[in-house]
Amino acid sequence: MKKRYLGLAASVAAGALVLSACTPPGSSGDGGGEGGGGEGGDSLLNVGWNEPFRSMNTMTANGNAVANSIVTYMMNDNFGYYDDNLEVQEGDLGTVEQVSEDPLQVKYTFADSATWSDGTPVDAADIVLQWAAQSSNFNTAEEEEVSRDEESGAIEEIEDEETVFFDSASIGPSLIKDFPEVSEDGKEVTFEYSQAFADWRYSLGFGADGVGVPAHIVAKKALGEEDPEAAKQAVLDAIENEDTAALSTIANEWNTAFDFTSMTDDEDLIVHNGPYKMVDFAEGQYLTLEADENYSGPKEVGVNQVTIRYNEDPMASVQAVENGEIDIIQPQATADVKSAAEAIDGVTVESEDGATYEHVDLTYDNNGPFDPESYDGDEETAKLVRQAFLKTLPREQIVETIIKPLNEEATVRDSLYMVPGAPGYDEVVAGNSSDEFAGGDIEGAQELLEEAGVEAPTVRLLYGASNERRAQQATLIKESAEQAGFEIVEDGDDNWGTRLGDGTYDASLFGWQSTTTGISNSDANWRTGQQNNYGGYSNEELDDMLDELMVTTEESEQTPLVTEIEKTLIEDGFGMPIFQHPELTIYRDRVQNVSTTTVSPTMFWNYWEWQVS
Amino acid sequence: MIRFILRRTLSTAVVLLVVTLVLFLLLDTALDYYADLRQSTAPNIGALYEARARLLDLDTPAIIRYFQWLTGAAGCLVGSCDLGTAWVSGQPVTDQLQGAVVNTVKLVTGATLVSILVGVFLGMISALRQYTGFDYFITFVSFLLYSLPVFWVAVLLKQYGAIEFNNFLSDPVVGWVPIIVVSVAAGLIWMGALGGTGRRRLLAFGGATLVTFGTIYYVLASGWLYDPTFGIVGIGVFSLATAVAVTFLSTGLSNRRALWTALTVAVIGIGLYMPLQNLFWYVEMNWLWMFLLALVAVGVGLAVGAAFRGPDPLVSGRTGAITAIVIGVLIFIDRVFQEWGRYGDHPAINQRPIATIGASTPNLTGDFWFVNLDSFTHLLLPSIALVLISIASYTRYTRGSMLEVMNQDYIRTAKAKGLPGRTVVMRHALRNALLPLASIIPVDIITMIGGAVITETIFGWSGMGKLFIDSMNRNELDPIMAYIVITGLLAVVANLVADFLYAVLDPRIRVDA
Prior knowledge:
The complex is a heterodimer. Chain A is α+β, with helices and mostly antiparallel strands. Chain A is built from 18 helices and 18 strands.
């Protein structure tokens, strides 16, 4: 009985509680804390990307990645950038002009509106530091002497005060040997190149690098100089006087201080001079940029808050677009991804040329069918065999069957230097004798083989085995070449990358990725003994032409020279380009003005024009 | 015992040393540290190669680098961990691990619990209804799920669980046919699970069909989906039902003291509903609060059990405590779902609450409940994927060992003595049947912490599995080594725990051997 009373008592007490409880203010359903309304009510945009951001300094060997560039490009202004036609446009940081051709002098004039977000003007110290850091001219440490953290290999705080090591190297800045002429107010800087240099436009202050990381912050961290003006002067002095003690700490900070993988507490690291500021960064998940109300430059951005969300699975990104979680993506282009994206309502899919181009290169130094050594040093025979092989490449067919489904406007790439459609492409193609190797020319190849007097040469073709697209190409190449009398050994290997240059194959099929349109780009692909010249190609005449190209600053003179270089390469049977890798840009229709360009920062190039509805 | 532990520790250390050494050398050969440079046309490519070799100290022989790594890793034993650096991001591996471990634990805890509970339950029922339609159905479904590739399940889940479901939420209308089909299917499943005579089966079928139909109809017709909370009425109904169900499973309804305890706890729970709403409104909640409240709930359950006393107060107390916890969870869920309306209205959600990627919506801030709701909408799909895949093995294991136990002599004796069926199954059979699971579950939990590589990748969770595969793709040796050490260590520990658990559960086994 007792337990019943207990139960009853409990019920009564409970009833009393229920009745006595006043309704909480939140239960009407419209309250309950701050609930996240607040910020970003106006315009939000979610962009998908495959790899997380990791450094504000895009000029170090390690920080140089598109994942970083897309963020720094939106956070910083520059002296020039590529538009979607790969034409160079004037940036908002100021103006660049060539003041003298011989010696080459380039003057950078900073706009009055150019200021860092902490109020310090952007000026000489910043671009001078960018030059000094990238030039390698101030590095005193022999590379072997730099002490590295033993386990990780990261550069240790260099103890020796006399050692300077900037972890960066770039050709343009290294050609500037002397300290530049800086105007009184620091708004004008004139650099003098020690020799003529064709790509001076891309050397400093260009694209996502902007003028690099703020010099006064570097000095604050390295030298403890709190006052921005004094800090800038300290940087300029250190560089001008080659003060190794100061430069040593400056280099250390410059190398690593700007690396971070989640939102940093240190406001100094995210000081910027462009229209967006970084407000949140969840490791591996997303990074949020917000329009900076204190931005003093001329850009007016259309979207208030841009969030970059990270996910590397292309299909997951497409589904996230369909579910409205992400608005723009540029996933790895496959036919599956394309058709899945096209099936979604309210989503636009655009296929364009990407930054990578596919090519076949031949090996010269492995006693294979393309090596003169195999024919007792008979250069001519080897060359005929090479030409014969290149003639058989079914380039047209490859583009037709493998690339067209992804990008209807795809064409065969006929230039080793230039992207189809780039300024000057048509002119180069007209003169580089690529038309003789249009592809699939079985009869022509047979004639050449006959002329060479070589019977059924065996060619080992190296490519990435798990890359289906490459495997299909290899099959097509094999079919075509065997008709002409070649014997093709398919050598599909997932470790193709490590094997490049080891001489165990005769022809290789892979992609080159361009980072700028500068003509000094690709130099290392064909120059004798260079890193990227895996086939062991060597032609003194060509090396001379490359030297000449490097110092040809007049664009009108560059094109004929490039044509001549390509003609030499192609007729020598160096190899042939095949096609530009397609790139898919997929975006929801609520975003307007999305377009993409071939090189970094791809679809971000005109971020200020984005609008959302 | 101590000798046993010592011996195991020593052998663990040796195993780990050998594993790390072999894998370090293998990985060092397999990883291509220059992969990203091989296709680059940068003019200074030679310098880049040299910089990379310097960065990773590649001129030093691998074996020496292993011992350098080992020195840092050994520091963990004395509290100064140095597991190296992920060179692509320049981030110390120890920092990387923290985030990854937290995310993985968050992802797998719920999924593991649910799959164990549901798996064991289904396996038990399936064994009790051996060779019936229900048994065949469960067998078929578990084998089907077991054989599904997770990447495919994930894509389907996203398509139907998120994209289509979100579309559906914007206009929640369903035709009659699907409702009836679902109701009848539910009726059939319940009928199979409950079993019994023809009349009982018919009742079960009819009842289950009607209840399902009614529930679906109510949910759709009342617009419940726009405000999916239970309210005090719902909490009341569920609490009382919970009290009865828990008592049935825990002691049997014939134990009146336990039943009264459970019902009293339920009534107290209902009574506290409104005061709790006030508490939740006026005080900013966090997980510590939740934990304390759960403790209070357990305390209340035990106290009520003690108040009803009788010869066996612990049994009543246990029943009360379980009931209190379940009711607490119901109130928690109810409170979280009170945020539903505001959540959907948020511009970042835009009426599409179920997410397909990530662990949270970017830039969404709010109170404890709001953030948790966001967490749940992100956890939902990956958890379902994990549960679907792992539930099958638990079902099969439980079924098998349950069948074996049910054929034992002592079960026959118990039945012959006239013990109620519930007591035979729950007390004598199930406990013994769970023994083999004790050696499987710890290992399973550890494997899950080792990371659900595919699930994490597809759903964009940066957990351990993702860390591993990303480091592989980026050719970063140090994080992979850390991953190997941690999973290796955990695997050994899990086996040790399993051994001990086994010994504790089964007195016949001693670990000294």
